[in-house]
Fold Nucleoside diphosphate kinase.
Amino acid sequence: MTEKTLMLIKPDGVQRAKVGEIIQRIENKGYQIINMKMVTPTRALLDLHYAEHVDKPYYPALVDYMTSGPVVVMIGEGTNIVAGWRTLMGETNPTKAAPGTIRGDLGREWPQEAMMNVVHGSDSIVSAQREISLWFN
Ligand code: AMP
């Protein structure tokens, strides 16, 4: 089934100049990027995007991380892309993410409280629709 998902290259990915490599991995996989822009997210947008994290102890650090610079925001399209993009990203903690995945190859843990993990992907079709409308209203 053809799906859309929201893909972010987070501030650490942009600052460490991994944009080209990440886009190449998306394109090598065969997914289409059907919309793309660069923005520095606002706190208001992040409160909506991360609605299920706002009460977590690491949330203030997560906001500091995500507002520390521009992110690349993309809509990806392809068959089963929601699950496929999460497989390409690897698991949340970059120390545990398998080699071969974006987080496993390009990420590591740093001293900051918020886990800096290079990329984001929607976790379901419903989340993807919600996140795409938030970031591309
Ligand atoms: P997720 O929507 O699951 O990707 O989680 C949002 C983001 O919050 C993650 O990508 C991490 O950057 C951060 N995060 C999630 N869980 C933790 C945690 N236990 N400690 C610190 N940061 C976290």
In short: The two ends are 24 Å apart (CA to CA).
